[in-house]
Design a protein that fits this description.
The structure is a single chain. The protein is 40% helix and 20% strand. It is α+β, with helices and mostly antiparallel strands. The protein has a five-stranded antiparallel β-sheet with strand order 9-8-7-6-10. A hairpin with a 4-residue loop joins β7 and β8. α1 (2-24) runs antiparallel to α2. The radius of gyration is 23 Å and the shape is elongated.
Length: 329
């Protein structure tokens, strides 16, 4: 009998913790309202646990699970939105207009960063000829140990221009990123197209992150397909917003989903979640320069110091690639 009571208590504690996160993290309500609901939920849970051990009240148990079911249903019914007070760097959403071989990108970010709070905001309209698409690079930006990195994909054109696509957590004014909040519909998702002097330099020169660049071996057809997949993903998010999820819908898993349409035999792998180890996965599927070991590619591809030295130079993209061998034809 006592074992059964403890099992019920464990179920209540675990569901109560989930319910607390489901009440606290979604931003549909203001912080004061969320705090009031959270406190009420925790007080109610304690009352149920007290009843379980000292009164054995089935009515309290039924009441608990009915309230929990209500929280669960409310959470499941939450809808993402593009209409919030976003941070300046995510205030606009990239859109793409495809006309044959030409793609016009609107709201390409080109900020001049001095600090996270001091910057010159600027958004561009840029047009690209996919027949001139010359290469694809993967950049990984590390900020918290070797396992966790943000994935960016940069497309290079024969005229020397680079445009980076990044799947971003779309934060509201005053919000900070939370891995736990990423499980509980706390953030929306955005696909941002940006200049390398913006999106790479803010990570190396402003936020102190460590960035590595790897040239990716893709056929011209696959490069074009991946670029168009990013363009389509950006357009879809404008009309159909999505929630970010720390595991299933993040900067790496969305890239994998896009590549899966291009290369159908790509295997699932834990490194898609632990994205800091992604280069070894890409190497195993034949996506890196086979003339070098992964350690050599990592050493040559560390662009952090070169980016810091380049600053806001016009040839920033050229400077950060010095010492990284071109892929063979």
């Amino acid at each position: 009998m006592l074992t059964r009571v403890y099992l019920k208590a464990l179920v209540i504690v675990l569901t109560a913790l989930w319910g607390a996160c489901a009440l606290w993290y979604p931003s549909s309500f203001g912080s004061d309202a969320r705090l009031a609901m959270l406190v009420a939920w925790l007080v109610f849970t304690l009352a149920v646990l007290y009843s379980l051990f000292w009164r054995a009240s089935k009515k309290m148990l039924w009441a608990y699970f009915l309230v929990f079911a209500g929280i669960l249903m409310s959470w499941l019914m939450l809808s993402p939105s593009n209409q919030r007070q976003w941070t300046d760097d995510l205030a606009r959403m990239t859109t793409a207009e495809v006309r044959g071989n030409h793609v016009m990108l609107r709201n390409v970010r080109d900020f001049d960063w001095h600090s996270d709070t001091n910057y010159r905001a600027h958004w561009d309209v840029r047009e690209y000829d996919l027949d001139q698409l010359a290469g694809v690079d993967m950049l990984l930006s590390y900020w918290d140990g070797p396992a966790i990195a943000h994935t960016l994909v940069s497309f290079g054109f024969r005229d020397g221009r680079q445009v980076v696509f990044s799947v971003e957590v779309r934060k509201e004014q005053g919000e900070a990123f939370s891995e736990l909040g990423g499980f509980f519909k706390h953030f929306e998702l955005s696909v941002v197209a940006a200049d390398e002097r913006d999106i790479v330099r803010v990570r190396t020169n402003v936020r102190g992150e460590d960035v590595y660049l790897y040239r990716i071996a893709l056929s011209p057809e696959a490069r074009r397909a991946l670029f168009l997949a990013y363009a389509e993903a950006a357009n879809q998010l404008v009309v159909q917003p999505r929630f970010y999820n720390t595991v299933s819908t993040n900067c790496t898993t969305l890239v994998y989903a896009m590549m899966k349409h291009i290369m159908t035999d790509l295997p699932l792998d834990y490194r898609l979640l632990v994205s800091g180890y992604l280069p070894s996965y890409v190497q195993e599927v034949g996506g890196l320069d086979s003339r070098y070991t992964l350690a050599q590619l990592r050493r040559m591809g560390r662009i952090t110091d070169r980016a810091r030295a380049a600053g806001d130079a016009v040839d920033f993209s050229t400077q950060i690639r010095r010492g990284i061998p071109e892929l063979p034809e």
